[in-house]
Every structure is written in C-alpha cells, then in structure tokens.
Amino acid sequence: MNSGSTFFIVTGGPGSGKTTLMHALSARGYPVTEEAGRAIIRAQTAIDGPALPWADRTAFAELMLSWEIRSHEQALVHAGPVIFDRGVPDVAGYLTLCGLPVPDHVARAVAHYRYASTVFVAPPWSEIFGRDNERKQDFDEAVRTHAAMVATYGAAGYDLVELPRAPVETRADFVISRLT
Q1: Cα-flanking dihedrals φ and ψ of residue 134, to 5°?
Q2: Which has the least CB within 10 A, 44, 47, 171, 175?
Q3: Residue 25's closest CA among 83, 76, 80?
Q4: Which of 121, 127, 139 is nearest to 85 (CA)?
Q5: What's the pTM?
Q6: Alpha-carbon distance 123 to 110, whole Å?
Q7: What share of the chain has pLDDT > 70, as a percent?
Q8: In the chain, helix, strand, coil percent, each to 5?
Q9: DSSP state of 13
Q10: What are the φ and ψ backbone dihedral angles of 160, each rounded to 5 degrees?
Q11: Could you tell me if 129 and 13 are in contact, meaning their C-beta atoms sit under 8 angstroms apart?
C-alpha cells in the first residue's frame, strides 16, 4: 500500500501538454489520474449544472477538491509511482488565481493530502496551446495559472521541476527518469 510518497503531480497552466503527457505515461504502464477540472466540466455540462468555472467558481473548486481527495485515496492501492494530472494544491492555486479566498478546509486538505516532494510543472507553451470545449481560457490566463500553481506548490513545500518544451516522448522520459 502506498503512503503518497510516490504520488507525482504534473501541474501548470491549461494547454501546456499535461493531458498528452498523461496519455503517454499511461501507455507506458504507469497509473495516472484524470484531471478533475475537465471531468467536472463535462459532467456539469451534461446535466446543465451550475458548478462551472464560468458560472460558479466556488462550487467548481469544491467539486475539484472532492475529486482530488478521492483520486488520492484511490491511488493508495498502488505499490509504485502514480502520476496525478493536478492535485489538491491545484484547488488552492485555482482559488488564488480567481481572486477568491482559500478556505481553511482547503488549506487543511493541502497539508493533509501530500504527494512526492517533486512536482512537475508544465510551462506555458504558446506553440501547443489551444482552446476546446472544456478549455476556454486564453494564453494570458494560462500564463497566470502557471504562476499561481508555481506559487501555491512552492508555498506548500514542494520542489518544482519544470518540464522541457519538447516532444511528448521526451517529456515522458524526463518524468520517468525522476520517479524516485
């Protein structure tokens, strides 16, 4: 059973290649998690729900927090590394980005649900950035999101390692070489 010390997060702004990297790591046999934000947007859109980042950011953040806690707890069954497409601290970063207060229960969750000390950060990358049905942010917001995540993870005591702006297979090799 895992203690969380081999839970590796990939974070950063939208459109920086995180999801593509997660697919490549999964194809190589590593357990990965699905990004909370995208899944919640799909589910809320399907039911015409209000917890969307463009409708109710606080409700959206609460659903993301629940999702990330559940992902953390489900990953405990894995003996080796698990790679997370964002983590609990991303919720605090999101709230900060939105200019909303970080409630005490979110701060407690950041302190309680820990991951490996190394956190991989996908930097803003205009050449691969794009919008879709779930990603409505522009590149400027992607840059601000990156900065918010870097600040949040740094304040939470994590060691940040920037991913190279390189093809996905190179990025996957980079991550795998540091899963210790």
Answers
A1: -105, -20
A2: 47
A3: 83
A4: 121
A5: 0.92
A6: 22
A7: 93
A8: 45, 10, 40
A9: S
A10: -90, 130
A11: no
